[in-house]
Amino acid sequence: MKRSITVPMKAEGLTTLKIRYDYKTDHFAMEAMKQWEPDLDFSKYNKEFYAESILTDDVVYYNTKQVRELFEKYELGDYLDEIQTLLRKGKHFGIEAYYHEGYDILYMSNQHSRKLGINNKLHATLAGGIRRHNKDEEEIEVIIDGLNLGRGMSFKNVAGHINMGGCKQTVTMDPIDLTNLQHVGFLGYCIDKCRTMTGPDMNFPTELADVENEYFSMQFTNGPKTSVLGETGKPTAYGVYKTLKQAVKFKEGTESIDGKSVTLIGLGAVGWYMGEYLLQENIKLYVTDLDPARAQQFIDEHEGDITAIPLENAYFNECDILCPCAIGGQLSDETIPKLNCKYVWGSANNGLKASSTEEEIRLAEKLKERDIVFQVEWWHNTAGVICGYQEYVDGKNATEEKLYKAIDDIMPPSTYMNLKMAEEKGITAVENAYDLADQVIYGDMTLEDINW
Asked: Residues 24-33: pLDDT tens digits?
């Protein structure tokens, strides 16, 4: 039988599943519901009905015990156990899932912590991007990806001084047609139900935010037309570039990277701009991308000492700085011993192949033993979130001047502080960043208490 939460939902005609976890008591609470009728037209969302509307006279509700029995009925009790183990391991608040059988769309909000978002005077208490997964992917891998990214967002919001909890939206569906307003409206409904602020991420076009803002939900940011700040790739790259210079200053006493060699992996929404910022300095730049034509295009459009290399083994290319700006999870027990660099510094989310803080710290120790400067990416890959947050809060009053000032004021100083503090304590910068963030997310410290 297929291992999916949609199996019992489809069989019983359910639309909604919530799995909540309280790490303080180690208790789970679950709900499964039917909240709308199959023929409900979501292209009419926020026109004829709203997130809080009563959408069926035939409401169905299962409590915690009944949800467990439901999964056991369809021989998925062990699968539910596996999901709960992941929630427990990462101290996650839970998963909020909506499934539309007619559209064959599964939306999951992977929610790590709400603490920073409570009492923020906004509709959204959570912030995190929305990404699409293909239907042939294993659902448990989608859940692991979403939970890891949601956990990273909680910590990233601490680093970015943002009063929002952390989450990540994963949507399993075919590539979206932005003219299909039923599908786009359904996503808007799900976002509003979860009280989440989001922006298009991997496998969703940035124009999704424009359509959502025009027709359905104002919780989407950074669309190319509706956003006063535009897409987040460029400010994200700027933040990574400015913090890289602080990492070099920490190790060598100067911010200059002149004369160094850099391997840039990934030339997407962030990597392309990262390459442009790097080329402001006198460096040797190696570039690679999943699409070799993309790397050649970058070379053709830019001046400088640039060489395209194959993606295979690019992580092990001999250089001073390894700059991963593509898929994460590439730094592992197997790959770390093969690295030929002095710094690993990029925008790739979840760079360490780990599903818990403890695993990340262990791998970071291996990098430290090799004298490779590394900082968990969520501590410096925060400019995109700052961009989205400023647009969400300030609306049309948001400006690039204010955005880049915030990036300069927050990110370089916090990076240098983290590296120095970790050195003084004799621990990795990864462990120190988690220590600081943990005190905010799980303890009594506030953002204002950190000596940035």
From this structure: 999 999 999 9
Q: Between 77-89 and 64-73, two packed helices, what is the crossing angle to 10 degrees?
A: 130
HEC assignment per residue over 27-50: EEEEEEEECECCCCCHHHECCCEC
**Helix locations, 195-269, DSSP H:** 207-215, 233-252
- N- to C-terminal Cα separation, the chain: 52
Angle at 155 between CA 150 and CA 156, to 5 degrees: 85
Nearest to 330 by CA among 305, 367, 293, 277: 367
What span, in angstroms and rounded, lies between the C-alpha atoms of 166 and 124?
Answer: 11
Q: How far apart are CA 203 and CA 168, in angstroms?
A: 14
- Identify the DSSP state of 180: -
Q: What are the tokens at 128? A: 């995190």
Do strands 126-127 and 196-197 pair parallel, antiparallel, or not at all (unpaired)? Answer: parallel
Give residue-wise pLDDT tens across range 256-288.
999 999 999 999 989 999 999 999 999 999 999
Q: Check if the beta carbon of residue 159 is closer than 8 Å to that of residue 240.
A: no
**Angstrom distance (rounded) from CA 234 to CA 240:** 10
Which runs of consecutive H residues, i.e. helices, occur in 74-216? 77-89, 139-159, 181-193, 207-215
* Separation in Å, CA 32 to CA 12, 98, 146, 155, 402: 10, 10, 20, 29, 44
Q: What angle do CA 49, 198, 166 make, to 5 degrees?
A: 115
The tokens describing 423, both together, are 């050195």
Of residues 318, 316, 265, the one with CA closest to residue 294: 265
The model's pLDDT over 316-355, given as tens digits with 9 standing for 90+, comes to 999 999 999 988 889 999 999 999 999 999 999 889 988 6
The predicted-structure confidence for 343-387, as pLDDT tens digits, reads as follows 999 999 889 988 678 899 999 999 999 999 999 999 999 999 999
The number of beta carbons lying within 10 Å of the beta carbon of residue 407 is 22
> Quick one: tokens of 79?
């699968």
Give the C-alpha separation, 128 to 106, whole Å: 17
pLDDT beyond 90 at 246: yes
Q: Which residue has the tokens 């001046």?
A: 303
Tokens representing residue 433 in the block? 């960043």
